[in-house]
UniProtKB/TrEMBL annotation:
NCBIfam families: FdxA_Protbact. The lineage of its organism: Bacteria, Pseudomonadati, Pseudomonadota, Alphaproteobacteria, Sphingomonadales. It comes from Sphingomonas rustica. Its cofactor is [4Fe-4S] cluster; [3Fe-4S] cluster. Residues 1-29, 30-59 form the 4Fe-4S ferredoxin-type domain. This is Ferredoxin. Keywords: 3Fe-4S, 4Fe-4S, Electron transport, Iron, Iron-sulfur, Metal-binding, Repeat, Transport. Ferredoxins are iron-sulfur proteins that transfer electrons in a wide variety of metabolic reactions. It holds the Pfam family Fer4.
Length: 104
């Protein structure tokens, strides 16, 4: 599966949802997550993300993010279409420590 990581927080560009063939993205207030049991591992979302927030779970150190994607995709609503991007998305791109400050 692929997972959304902290680089998405407060950026939320939503280009990923437009390309996912199985509509497995779920929306929180500040970021999206992928449902790992629905993701078919096609990989098309990874290069679409301007924040480089999407990674394959085969990369090291992503256990925490895989678990967060799994847990929150169970309760957040499904999202299949891009809507308004946060006004300060570009300023938030690459900012460190977003998980501690803004995760929701
Ligand atoms: Fe969707 Fe493919 Fe990305 Fe999985 S890897 S979330 S199926 S676009
Ligand atoms: Fe987030 Fe990137 Fe999608 S910033 S909403 S994972 S395009």
């Amino acid at each position: 599966t692929y997972v959304v990581t902290d680089a998405c927080i407060r950026c939320k560009y939503m280009d990923c949802v437009e390309v996912c063939p199985v509509d497995c993205f779920y929306e929180g207030e500040n970021m999206l997550v992928i449902n790992p049991s629905e993701c078919i591992d096609c990989g098309v979302c990874e290069p679409e993300c301007p924040a480089e927030a999407i990674l394959p779970d085969t990369e090291n150190g992503l256990e925490k993010w895989l678990e967060l994607n799994r847990v929150y995709s169970e309760s957040w609503p499904n999202i299949t279409q891009k809507t308004d991007v946060p006004a300060d998305a570009d300023e938030m791109k690459g900012v460190e420590g977003k998980f501690e400050k803004f995760f929701s």
